[in-house]
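Fill-in record for CRISPR-associated Cas family protein.
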Amino acid sequence: MTKNNVSSKLKLIKRGGGEVRLKVDLLLNKDEIPKDKNRIFISLFKTILLKSDEEVYRELYESGAKRKKFTFSLNMPKCKFNRESITIPGKKVSLFFSAADLKLGIVFYNAFVRSKGDVISYKDLELKIVNISLLNEKLFTGECVVFKTSSPIVVREHHKENNTDWYHSLSDNKGYELFIENLKNQILEDLPESIYDLDEIDVKVISNKTVKVKHYGIEVLSNLTTLKVTAKPYILSYMLNAGAGNFKNSGFGMLTVV
């Protein structure tokens, strides 16, 4: 794809606001990947960003721990979860990427486009980016929507004094309260004007299933959930594109509208 074509496509992103949602199709060289799968795609992000925009790469990954304003999920057709691996018969994966920050979203879009056709290695696994699609923007006009997770939500309780973490279910009062507190803090940090609307946010858990996801060698309790959210339209839009919960930039907490 030429530079001019990239610029033309990016005009589509800018028509409605500051969000970017992408679908990236990848081919694999083998039909089995490690169960600790998200780190594979984090490595992919680092590789394509380092090639495309070294400044942003260093800002995101070499300037200390920080919350990164994007999330992603994976679609692995007909996959089978084994004890330590995942079998993907068709050797195809679709990566869904979302950023609530327009500038960051454009950087990632360009990085994917510039690496289209490249073979990117992770240990003995090879991934090839074969297609990148911009997804249509969802415009919210009402103040109530039902979200479903496309990657599970993590509710983490971190204790600084001994550097330990506890992970909670959204079905429990403690987990729900921590989730709401974290959600409002992130909204306020990214959207300072929301300070006048935070108290109106109402979240109801319609259904929830806890699952354990292997993440950097640790079994993390997480939540496959459906949420009914009442809030101002711009907050609903933010939640859809930023995701919800902890570890969002590591492949958790991506939402879709039911």
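KEY FINDING: DSSP finds six helices and 14 strands in the chain.
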